[in-house]
Amino acid sequence: KARISIAIDGPAGAGKSTIAKIISKTLNILYLDTGAMYRAVALKAIRESVDTLNREQMSKLVENIDIKIAHSEDIQRIFLDGEDVTDFIRTPEVSIGASNVATVPAVRLKMVELQREIAKKNSVVMDGRDIGTYVLPDATLKFFLTASVEARAIRRYNELLSKGITQITLEDVKKDIEYRDKNDSNREFAPLSKAPDAIEIDTTDLTIEQVVNKIMEYAKDYV
Ligand code: C5P
Question: What residues have CB less than 8 Å from 71, skipping those under 6 apart?
Fold first, then answer.
């Protein structure tokens, strides 16, 4: 069977990872969460007290960084310099840090290299911000998921609660999302934007199943 790649881009909380996981199972292809990579870079910076917006220091920090992805059962595990950091990268501090480090070209070049390598060897569904526009411009299918800021904030908030992160308010989550939307859309290098050939889906009033069904209308030939 020919190799395929599906790009799912969009802002935080639009449902990308939830949907991408289901699509990967349905099509029996690899799911790659590219946001986790930027999060791991941010975690390293935070731990080493490096300013996540300092280009020079961030470029240096990623020179010898070792980021590896492994898949066990349905879960993507991410390794930073040999340590499994999967459980440490979902905090609000790391979210903001990830958005900051993602503005640094040297960081992006390094992550994109890894992402393209994985897509060369596997059929994948990849979620992120620049997959359809920059990482995989020739992707088999491209989707751009959106939703209102309110809907996205509520989803993220519930997700954090379910992970036991309770010391944060809905208003904090909304601010975090607005900050990242702005940062991700306005950076010069590979910003968040819809590829001209991407199919846009507004998920505000759709259930997960409805979004999956829409995507599968396009992807059904690849089952
Ligand atoms: O998707 P997630 O919320 O985990 O991504 C965290 C941050 O990483 C985003 O806010 C964005 O700044 C950055 N990112 C990116 N490009 C990607 C994936 C994530 O710039 N392909």
Answer: 30, 31, 77
